Amino acid sequence: MTAARLTVWDEAACSRGHAAALEILDRVGVEVRHEAGLALFGKAGARIEHTRVRLPGALVEQALATAPRAFPLRGRDRDGALDLDIRNGPTYFGSGSDCLYVRDPHSGARRRAALADVEAGAAMAERLPNIDFVMSMWLPEDAPLEVVDLVQLAAMLTHTRKPIVVSSPRGGDAMREQVEMAAVCDGADSLACLTMSSPSLILDAVCVEKTLSCAELKVPMVLETGISLGSTGPASLQTAAATAHAETMATLVLHQLANPGAPFICGSGISQLDMRTFVDLYSAPESALGSQLQINLAQSLSLPTFDYAACTDAKSHDEQCSAEMMSSTLLGALSRATLLHDVGYLESGMLSSYEGLVMGDALAGYARALMQEVPIDDTTLFIDELAKIGPGGIFLASKLTRRRCHEWWRSELFDGSSFSQWQASGERSLGDRLRARTLDLLAAARDPVVDSDAASELATLVEQARKRMADS
Fold first, then answer.
1. How many whole angstroms separate alpha carbon 340 and alpha carbon 30?
2. What CA–CA distance (Å, rounded) separates 340 from 296?
3. What are phi and psi of 138, to 5 degrees?
4. pLDDT tens-digit readout, 6-31
5. Where are the alpha helices (DSSP H) in 233-353?
6. How far apart, in Å, do the first and last CA atoms of the chain sit?
7. Domains defined for the chain, CATH in brackets
């Protein structure tokens, strides 16, 4: 290994965890609350009693044999620079979806999110160099609830060319509508779909419909579990991880039965419930450890993964926010998960902020510098230079120094100046610099990345969907 990496469960432990998940699927099973899903499981040989489905291990192994280990998620630029190589190896950072609240970047007030925030957030993500994919960040209160997912997507397609991970409270029809909208912008293959199962070991109708439609359309599907330790799942981290893995494997089986070879991404989602406040905590060590166990299990099967970065339980941009955003970014990056989302989330996922996104972008840059490969061989050992300059020598003028110093990580958010230089620049804190950087980004012109014809067609598709639902 020549790069930084976090591993909690080694190969033997992952094998035991996977075996435990297979036992859970065989003995306990999953609830499947959708007729088409039940029919697919039954036809494949699962044991079905009412809505309880118990799966033999052979079905899981069959699904693992057909699930792809690598596939592209494309950006909508012309040169392919925004494309993501989805596999177990590269790590990409992105925002999250559907927060109810935003911290206003001008007043600092906590308020309900609006459609203008989704638009501005997508435009900001387009400009941030370490944000690789985009989610809606907010659930706008001024959008029609029945088509809010389509309104969010239209805003993202209009303001960013980066790959998009969509989320929807609706089932199969939503995915078809979203693909149609992306196709208008030459991006039918630029979407992935987040699907969440909740509570534990239950695949409800929306989850099943999304699974089937993603498989049919070959849209990469992310399955994120939602076990809360001691609440919706066992208080044992080991049992919770095996249970979450069982749920993921059950969904993978359904997904691959519907269309063998369709792309699938394993999400994490074990949280620690604070019994004093009944808040599911992002930043508790048990939450991070539980998610890491899930990531290790999926990686042991060479499947791509979905985890967290740059998120916090803090309510404002204070010292706790900085500490937890940094720790979650480093833990997420060192896990080597494929997609790291929720950059810029505060308040345990209730609030997302522009400043948080900007801060997360800087932290992602730091993490990338830490994650770089550090091979040791004749091409990386410069002993001849050391011998030439000798003990006690000065390397400031060497060719290697002049070349490498421009490659070292730097961020305008973090101050590395001397005390006198810091004083001369106005003694600005991290918070001061963060606010200034955020307001500069928001003030910059954000022209749409689609032409007027595409923007008009997106609006038409959203309105047509709204009318269909109103008439049904």
1. 27
2. 15
3. -130, 155
4. 999 999 999 999 999 999 999 999 99
5. 237-258, 285-300, 319-335
6. 57
7. 1-374+409-472 (3.20.20.480)
- Under DSSP, the state recorded for 30 is E
pLDDT on residue 8: 96
* 265 phi/psi in degrees, rounded to 5: -125, 130
Contact criterion met (CB below 8 Å) for 212 and 172 = yes
Dihedral sign, CA of 349, 140, 443, 409? positive
Contacts of residue 23, Cβ cutoff 8 Å, sequence gap at least 6: none
In the chain, the amino acid numbered 54 is: R
Q: Are 233 and 244 in contact (CB under 8 A)?
A: yes
Coil, strand or helix at 402: helix
**Chain CA centroid to CA 437, Å:** 24
pLDDT computed for residue 163 by the predictor = 98
Nearest CA to 87 out of 274, 298, 290, 388 is that of 298
Residue with tokens 């993603």: 214
pLDDT at position 226 is 86
Q: Within 272-425, where are the H helices?
A: 285-300, 319-335, 354-371, 383-389, 399-404, 419-424
Tens digits of per-residue pLDDT, 34-46?
999 999 999 999 9
- What backbone phi and psi angles, to 5 degrees, belong to 344? 95, 5
Confidence of residue 115 (pLDDT cuts 50, 70, 90): very high
Q: What is the secondary structure of 176-226 as a DSSP string?
A: HHHHHHHHHTT-TTSEEEEEE--STTEE-HHHHHHHHHHHHHT--EEEE--
pTM of this structure: 0.96
Question: What tokens does 144 get?
Answer: 């029609």
Evaluate whether 122 touches 156 at the Cβ level (below 8 Å). yes
Q: Are 434 and 317 in contact (CB under 8 A)?
A: yes
Closest CA to 197 of 116, 108, 269: 269
Q: Which pLDDT score, from 0 to 100, does residue 471 have?
A: 81
Q: Residue 24: CB partners within 8 Å, gap ≥ 6?
A: 201, 242, 243, 246
Per the CB < 8 A criterion, the answer to whether 137 and 97 are in contact is yes
Residue range 170-182: mean pLDDT, rounded = 92
How far is the C-alpha of 211 from the C-alpha of 55, rounded, in Å?
Answer: 17
Arithmetic mean of pLDDT, 274-283: 88
| pLDDT tops 80 at residue 172 | no
Q: Residue 198: is its pLDDT beyond 80?
A: no
Across 135-160, average pLDDT: 97
pLDDT score recorded for residue 450: 96
In 10 A of CB 455, how many CB atoms? Answer: 17
Cβ neighbours for 307, distance < 8 A, ≥ 6 positions apart: 267, 268, 291, 295, 332, 335, 337, 339, 340, 341
Distances (CA, A) of 247 to 36, 55, 243: 18, 11, 6
